[in-house]
Amino acid sequence: LSLTGYIQACRGLMISAVCLGFFGAIFGLVGMKCTKVGGSDQTKAKIACLAGLFFILSGLCSMTSCSLYANRITSEFFDPSFVAQKYELGAALFIGWAGASLCIIGGIIFCFSIAENSNSAR
User: Fold this and answer.
1) Which PANTHER family match (predicted)?
2) What is the CATH number of domain 5-119?
């Protein structure tokens, strides 16, 4: 495909974000207390923290991709010498930023769940 470099970079970052989010969801499912897979509570807490790390990385990849594309669109829009068709920021970018933020927040919550599990005495 003959796409420009920044679109290829955005595509790669989004594919990475989807893959990281998939593995984060799998590890999150295994790391929950209500599942029988994964062993002891300490092991489940470490798996949940790993899931949180995957979600944070997924959110960062998605946020970087949306921001890179928005930066390019904005710089082309305000460039007076740019004569090709000009684009504006659309709803998909704002939804992407919101989704990436939620992914990062969810990953942080997953990472803090290890502290809650290690402090509980049984």
Assistant:
1) CLAUDIN
2) 1.20.140.150
Q: Please give the model's pTM, rounded to 2 decimal places.
A: 0.86
Instruction: Please enumerate in sequence order all residues whose Cβ is within 8 A of that of 27, keeping only pairs 6 or more positions apart, or say none.
Output: 47, 48, 50, 51, 54
Beta strands in the chain (DSSP E): none
For 93, residues 6+ apart whose C-beta sits below 8 A from its C-beta are 66, 69, 70
The Cα–Cα gap between 5 and 79 comes to 19
Q: Determine the length of the chain.
A: 122
Which residues does 28 contact at the CB level (< 8 Å), separation at least 6?
A: 48, 51, 52, 55, 110
How does pLDDT run across 80-106, given as a tens digit for each residue?
Answer: 888 888 888 899 999 999 999 999 999
Whole-angstrom distance, CA of residue 24 vs CA of residue 56: 9
CB 30 within 8 A of CB 46: no
